[in-house]
Write a structure and sequence with these properties.
- The protein is of the alpha/beta class and 469 residues long.
- It has a domain of 168 residues: ATPase, nucleotide binding domain (Nucleotidyltransferase, domain 5), CATH 3.30.420.40.
- Helices cover 46% and strands 17% of the residues.
- The chain contains 16 helices and 13 strands.
- The strands form three sheets. It has a six-stranded mixed beta sheet. Strands 4-3-2-5-8 form a five-stranded mixed beta sheet, sandwiched between helices.
- The longest helix has 36 residues.
- The protein is globular and about 75 Å long.
- The structure holds beta-D-glucopyranose.
Length: 469
């Protein structure tokens, strides 16, 4: 037998034996079509609660008004700074939108480090760091004397009553700086800038990354009225009818709602599908009990779910000769990029083994097959859950507009969505199955949410000028 045949034979052998055995334990990670439909229905209910004035205070999916009332109309222009804090990187951008012949967008980006002790220290220190990086960025471009308008992409749940304020409700993901929850992040940033006394900026808009992504994609495709992030964290936004947003006065037109969908399940409504592995990941997270849906979907947590399953399987003697190594005990060893590599179809089993060995996991070929199977089950469930949420959103928009059929585009960003070999396909299929009356196009946002933040800032400036004249 030649090597490939041998491997195929070997794989079948293992499938019949060990994979069947572990299948029993992975069963809890599999979601039937009925369950997915049920999750979609629950999701719709939670959206409804968040939108209602009576239920919003206790709702888990907060459905936060953003005061962004339209997608770009092509008339936006100017010179802007965009700050992007809360995603995989902390970035500062200069975005120039001009109108020579046709509208063009020019961008310069710089990525800055945000060490963990800044994310977990005092809020003052974190915002001083942001102001310092801003100083560096402006110095290099010799623009310290310009009071440029700023769009602040702050990727956390914020309560807004206008475009240029954002009261942080709660930190999520890797952040936990003290003294920021309950405060207006615009005021905190302004204070840090004033303290430096070397430059002045005009913060015009606080923008969630989902909203920035929707705006960036809407610039290319006016049908884009939904934004989705599947990266370190997960969340979505969409254009909702004003008449349905009871938390804001007025019934005319639409407003973008930052759903904060990561908190779906925080009231226990997903408890029947959460597994012991999900609970373990939640218990050891920075925000235990919160963001339960996000913890089943996004890049920061999927690797941890995998690691918990592997520990369990090792204890049961299915893996790594029953030996729990130091590497397996290490939190966060399975980053999104490793999951994506392990699940790649192009990778031969021996290469999976090499990756595991690089991670310090001394594995046999049998181990590699099991690890790959576990990764597949976890990422598939994540994509299906994400699809169930998205199906609920598109179907609600269709009903809002009284349409038999809806054509809509979703602007998407995030490392997991972009890097994983199967996530997007499974998610798209789930949306198709659960919302058959909607034709959904997914558009990748190529340049993050910086451009979108600048476009929102441009509108903000125009509205401000109109108010003053
Ligand atoms: C935050 C959202 C954000 C999402 C994606 C979540 O943890 O709560 O505001 O949009 O991550 O970055």
């Amino acid at each position: 037998m030649i090597a490939a045949q041998l491997l195929a034979y070997y794989f079948t052998e293992l499938k019949d034996d060990q994979v069947k055995k572990i299948d029993k334990y992975l069963y809890s990670m599999r979601l039937s079509d009925e369950t997915l439909l049920d999750i979609m229905t629950r999701f719709r209910q939670e959206m409804q609660n968040g939108l209602s004035r009576d239920f919003n205070p206790t709702a888990t999916v907060k459905m936060l008004p953003t005061f962004v009332r339209s997608i770009p109309d092509g008339s936006e222009k100017g010179d802007f700074i965009a700050l992007d804090l809360g995603g995989s990187y902390f970035r500062i951008l200069r975005v120039k939108v001009s109108h020579e012949k046709r509208q063009t967008v020019q961008m310069e980006t710089e990525i800055y480090d945000t060490p963990e002790d800044y994310m977990h220290g005092s809020g003052t220190r974190l915002f001083d760091h942001v102001a310092e990086c801003l100083g560096d960025f402006m110095e290099k471009r010799e623009i310290k004397d310009k009071k440029l308008p700023v769009g602040f992409t702050f990727s956390f749940p914020c309560r807004q009553s206008k475009l240029d304020e954002g009261y942080l409700i709660t930190w999520t993901k890797r952040f936990k700086a003290s003294g920021v929850e309950g405060a207006d992040v615009v005021q905190l940033l302004n204070k840090a800038i004033r303290k430096r006394g070397e430059f002045d900026l005009d913060i015009v808009a606080v923008v969630n990354d989902t909203v920035g992504t929707m705006m960036t994609c809407a610039y290319e495709d006016p049908n884009c009225e939904i934004g989705l992030i599947v990266g370190t964290g997960s969340n979505a936004c969409y254009m909702e009818e004003m008449r349905n947003i009871e938390m804001v006065e007025g019934d005319q037109g639409r407003m973008c709602v930052n759903m904060e969908w990561g908190a779906f399940g925080d009231n226990g409504c997903l408890d029947d599908i959460r597994t012991i592995y999900d609970k373990a990941v939640d218990d050891f997270s920075l925000n235990s009990g919160k963001q339960r849906y996000e913890k089943m979907i996004s890049g920061m947590y999927l690797g941890e779910i995998v690691r918990n399953i592997l520990i369990d399987f090792t204890k049961r003697g299915f893996l790594f000769r029953g030996q729990i190594s130091e590497a397996l005990k290490t939190r966060s060893i399975f980053e999104t990029k490793f999951l994506s590599q392990i699940e790649s179809d192009r990778l031969a089993l021996l290469q999976v083994r090499t990756i595991l060995q690089q991670l310090g996991l001394d594995s046999t070929c049998d181990d590699s097959i099991i690890v790959k199977t576990v990764c597949g089950a976890v990422s598939r469930r994540a994509a299906q859950l994400c699809g169930a949420g998205m199906a609920a959103v598109v179907d609600k928009i269709r009903e809002n507009r009284g349409l038999e059929h809806l054509d809509i585009t979703v602007g998407v960003d995030g490392t997991l969505y972009k890097l994983h070999p199967h996530f997007s396909k499974v998610m798209h299929q789930t949306v198709k199955d659960l919302a058959p009356k909607c034709d959904v196009t997914f558009l990748l946002s190529e340049d993050g949410s910086g451009k979108g933040a600048a476009l929102i800032t441009a509108v903000g400036c125009r509205l401000r000028d109109a108010e003053h004249n």
